[in-house]
Amino acid sequence: MMKKKIFAVMMACMLAFALAACGNTGNHMEESTVPKPGTTVEPTAETESEPETETEENTSPSDTSDEAVEIESEPEDAAATELVVYFSWSGNTESAALEIQNQTGADMFRLVPAEPYTDDYDALLDIAQEEQRNGARPAISGSIENFDSYEVVYLGYPNWWGDMPMIIYSFLDDYDLSGKRIVPFVTSGGSGFSNTISTIKSMEPDAEVLDGLSLGSSQAADPGDAAADWLRGLGLVE
Ligand SMILES: Cc1cc2nc3c(=O)[nH]c(=O)nc-3n(C[C@H](O)[C@H](O)[C@H](O)COP(=O)(O)O)c2cc1C
Predict the structure, then answer these.
(1) Do residues 150 and 180 touch, judged by C-beta distance below 8 A?
(2) What number does CATH give the domain 81-233?
(3) Which residues line ligand 1 (CB under 6 A)?
(4) Structural domain boundaries of the chain?
(5) What residue ranges of the chain have pLDDT lower than 70?
(6) How far apart are the CA of 139 and the centre of ligand 1, in A?
């Protein structure tokens, strides 16, 4: 009888211990999935891989940034080797020349005849015609320093009697443009370039003559947009 009681008590204790143990196990599992305040969750395998991916992405811009620097440096180099050369009697071609210089950063040289032209328009018409008939080569005042260093020469002139003013012929005779890129621009009362592009090509067979810009007299006063489109089209500005 006594043995039965002792056995019953032992069984009761074992059962109570077993139930208590199960209860603790359940609580522990719940606690492990809930972060305690003030603690951090260790990254899982997935969250660990994310920073690596971001790191790779973040390196991409710095990889290409070297290329971007090189591209940015090109216009500066180009600007240092460009020159605007022009003749203008009443200011229209000069307006275009200034705009081109402004947009490209090129150096500039104005062709001025050593013997100045008259201020009288009607008299000038006759003089210009006479110069053409005679194949004149009016002398240029001053000279262009370090002309050999320029790779691109913007060449501007007004249309005079369907041709270039003879001082442009003087310039093409006096300076060697072999290997350079000539970028012509003209202002006119409507004739545009006439045949002057083929004349330049025949006088400078070893130069590359790019597509020119033709402006009407009134358009020349505000040449900004036309010049920008033209220069961009030629790839001479961004
Ligand atoms: C002597 C002379 C001849 C000209 N001949 C022509 C011509 O044949 N066709 C034309 O469209 N404009 C002609 N013009 C007008 C000029 O080409 C035009 O006004 C030009 O924009 C002037 O440029 P500038 O202000 O730079 O001198 C002539 C002007 C002058 C002074």
Answers:
(1) yes
(2) 3.40.50.360
(3) 88-94, 124-125, 128, 158-162, 187-191, 217, 220
(4) 81-233
(5) 1-80
(6) 20
